[in-house]
Amino acid sequence: MWATNFWLTDRFSETTRVRTELRLALYTGNIMSELQRTSVVPLLLARDPALANALESGDYSKTSATLISAKQDVAAASIRLLDASGRTVASTNRHLIGTSYSTAPFFVEGLRSRETIFTATTRETGGTEFNYSRALVADGRVVGVIVVEAELAKFERAWAGISDAVAVTDSEGRIILTTEPKWRGLTMGEALARRDAPTAIQRALQATADWANDAPDAYLRGQAVMRTETRIPFRGWRMTAFTSYESVRERVNAVLALEIMGFAILLALAFYWLSRRARVQSARYRRESAELRALNARLSREIAERERVQKDLAVAEQTLAQSSKLAALGEMSAAVSHELNQPLAAMKTYLAGARLLLQRNRSEEALSSFQRIDDLIERMGAITRQLKSYARKGGEAFEPVDLRAAISSALAMMEPQLKARTVRITRTMTREQVMVLADRIRLEQVIINLLRNALDATKAVADPQIELILAAGETAVLSVRDNGPGLSDLEKLFEPFWTTKKPGEGTGLGLAISSSIVSDFGGRLTAHNAEGGGAVFEMQLPLLSEAKLKTAPGGAEAAE
Predict the structure, then answer these.
(1) Which of 99, 90, 100 is nearest to 70 (CA)?
(2) Residues of 30-56 as b/e, b for ≥16 C-beta within 10 angstroms?
(3) Which helix H or strand E contains 138, and what residues bound it?
(4) Which of 157, 208, 209, 240 is deepest in the core (most CB within 10 A)?
(5) Where are the beta strands (DSSP E) in 245-322?
(6) pLDDT, tens digit, for every residue of 70-106?
(7) CA dihedral defined by 311, 316, 320, 326, rounded to 10 degrees?
């Protein structure tokens, strides 16, 4: 049905369009015939000596009768005789005698030219006048203008009974002749846009019609129409006709009705065959119903078994959650053990030194060692409070910290380990302060972890070297480089409990904790192998601007 509708609609639409084109050719011939016939009348009347004598003498008693007789002979709409001032002195419509047309285009252009002039003027009452005018000359001077109006309005009345709508446009695109009175004086686009808003029912019917036909060229009185246009060989005029799809639909629907009837017969046969098939299937379904009841019983047993398994799974999940809690506690214990090993080793060294100093009666130097031991005890307390930052984000004691001072403090903390071995440490730092917003204790903890890793990496090296480089650009960057064997597995480097050390020498938490601390400070900790050998750890932290330094807690003291 869709293919038939498409093919027949296209074929019948083309037939209707050809018929409309033939009708437009006939309309165009009628208009040209009327214009050509009327264009000769001003030339004949301009040569009439009676009209010229009347204009010279001023005697117009018989002039109007002459014009009325000429109008009947040529079937013109009207004929007017104007004197040199533009006043109507004779007319086929006696009500117009005395009317002045001094500014009318047909009068002004008629005076200027010695040829027949065509003008189309819009009437005040609506519609368009199509006038041929020509100057009357006597003794070499213009004595008046003869104006003959072409009878084109009669075509509008004739077209209205044949086509849905017909319109003639001039060279500017304005409608000058039309079967639709509301279109006069408008462009074609403006005329087609002036239609009443459709109701919901009209929109539904219109959508149905648009689906059944080709895309309409326009809408006329709420109906889709096809548009046919032709050229009139006169001053750039064009004629447009609009034809509805009703005749097309009637012819197409007749064929579609036959198709629908055929489909209905086929459907009846199909329903009969399906009913026979349904009876056969009904017997088969009765046999299958018994099997379905047995299957439902098995499904009930499986559902009960699944519920039991889900209960066991819930118990297993609770056990797994408890195991996860115990693993977290083990991780925290390992972290505390790792972080407290460094201060305890330093305290042991300071106590041994203080014992020797007291034996040698150098009490003042021994007091200095005890003061360092006291600082280490405070540091151990701070570490136990801050280690939980690995398990959750934290850091409420942030303050402006000079990275140079933090590096010096970390080196002082590592002094006993550094004296125990021969290691060359090179520091490269800027002279200006490098201020960051961080927790001083935790920041020193990260630097100590990096130094300790570097020391461990250079144990088997003949000439161990550690280089610390502090640079300040868009961010503060601290690089710790060693000349050890380098890093073997960069992907697992910052994972908890992963280490390359022997059992008992390391927990694998140092770099993981350091990375978490640097992330809390808004920075990042990275590592890579150096080109000449060894490993390089880089700690990047955001710099603290001067404005933030003044508003930060303890900012003024830190700046001083």
Answers:
(1) 90
(2) ebeebbeebeebbeebbebeebbebbe
(3) strand 128-138
(4) 240
(5) none
(6) 888 888 888 999 998 899 999 888 888 888 998 998 8
(7) 100
pLDDT digits (tens, 9 = 90+) for 383-431: 665 444 434 444 456 889 999 999 988 887 777 677 777 888 888 888 8
d(CA 385, CA 398): 14
Amino acid letter at 149? E
Of the pLDDT bands very low, low, confident and very high (cuts 50, 70, 90), residue 560 is very low
Contacts of 385 (CB under 8 A, 6+ apart): none
- Residues 188 and 167 sit within 8 Å (Cβ to Cβ): yes
Bridge partners for 10 per DSSP: none
The separation between CA 450 and the C-alpha centre of its own chain, rounded to angstroms, equals 50
Cβ burial of 257 (10 Å; 0-12, 13-18, 19+) is: exposed
* 240 has pLDDT over 50: yes
Q: What was the pLDDT predicted at 381? A: 73
| E-strand stretches of 190-296 | 218-220, 223-231, 238-244
**Sign of the alpha-carbon torsion through 256, 257, 263, 266:** negative
Closest CA to 167 of 152, 159, 177, 153: 177
- Using CA of residue 129, residue 134, residue 136, residue 141, what is the dihedral sign? positive
- CA count, 13 A, side-chain hemisphere, 441: 19
Query: DSSP state, 184?
Result: T
Q: d(Cα 222, Cα 208) in Å, to the nearest integer?
A: 13
Query: pTM to 2 decimals?
Result: 0.42
Whole-angstrom distance, CA of residue 512 vs CA of residue 506:
13
Work out the mean pLDDT of the chain and round it to a whole number. Answer: 79
Residue 10 has which token pair?
């296209």
Distances (CA, A) of 367 to 342, 356, 409: 21, 12, 19
Give the Cα separation of 254 and 15 in Å (integer).
Answer: 17
Contact 488, 527 (CB under 8 A): no
Alpha-carbon distance 540 to 524, whole Å? 5
